[in-house]
Fold this sequence. Notes:
Blueprint: E1 4-5, H1 6-19, H2 29-40, E2 47-48, H3 55-82, H4 92-107, H5 116-129, H6 135-144, H7 147-156, H8 167-186, E3 193-199, H9 205-218, E4 226-233, H10 236-244, E5 246-247, H11 257-263, E6 264-267, E7 270-273, H12 275-278, E8 281-285, E9 297-302, H13 311-324, E10 325-333, H14 343-346, E11 347-351, E12 356-359
Parallel strand pairs: 3-4, 3-9, 4-8, 9-10
Antiparallel strand pairs: 1-2, 5-7, 6-7, 10-12, 11-12
Helix pairs in contact: 1-2, 1-3, 2-3, 4-6, 5-7, 8-9
Amino acid sequence: MKAFNIMEDITKKYLDEMLSMRFDICTCDLCKQDIIAFALSRIPPKYITVDSFTDKLIQQIRTENSQLIVKELVAAVRTITSNPRHEEGLDREKAYHLLMKQIKDDRGVDFSHYRDRVLKRRIALRMRAKNVQTYSEYLQVLIHNSEEYEELFNVLTINVSAFFRDKPIWDKLKQDVFPALIAKKLKEHGLRRIRIWSAGCSHGEEPYSLAIMLYELTEKMPEKIKIEIYGSDIDRECLKQAMLGQYNSESVKGLTPYQLRRFFIPINDKYQVVPQIKELVQFKNRNLIHDPAFSGVDMITCRNVFIYFNRSLQEYLIMKYHEALVDEGYFVMGTSENLLGEARQVFSGVDSSYRIYQKISIKKY
């Protein structure tokens, strides 16, 4: 009975999954054949017969070899598509950059400093949704359907958040960072004020979370401390929702039952932020790259925003935030992000595991 290499079938299925969202490379049948051949030349074969064929066996082989197959397929895709054995009818990189230029010209949003890999992956979601195969075709979609821009920006900006998202970070702020900041303010003369900037605030959950936490920590103090929190985002639609202050049950699941009762008013299937918390927060439309920073702030939170930026722009923004902070002000990043370049010399780690840093006082330079 004739045996066949089951690794070929498994590799083909993995390749189909990998190429389903790749519009930046050639995925013609010839290139697919070459990719499969290249990968299989580096993957040990597994021969089975029709009699030995079972779903359980195939799943076992797939599980045992998935890491190797993906590794070799990534190498094969890179090797074959960088030098296909046919004439390229499309200049995909040129079409991609024309698309980004059109977005900048139409909407004034410049993604030129963002990571191409992240942008291409997210643009591919909209291309697939619109059933187009090239950047040039998607460009035409944007030109003839302005509503598509809103869908595209929703994908590019990942506007997903929740109250007190990443609870361990908020625990650290409540237990150590905010008490230290409050103690510092109580030593000051005149108007005592805490100013915080939530950069890239999405729908507003983070700045409202900051307001709730600081309100709880300071409300019973005999000494008055004024709380000013600024939420900024490039997405105007997100800011409209943030200013409205109404959230669904998924957004508020990080709140305690007490916080939900005290700081929110149920309205149908939504929860409305109460006025005493809303009045502590101001929302502004800001492009982090080009617009001025809020100055003289005690803390800046900018979490999971840097993933879009290349290294040079990350360094620029971190130093821009450094200038905006008061001496010994705090800077909070996303847990997958890191300080880069000169920033390592001008910030000290409060809790590096949670990416909470403090601006080093000028006196300590």
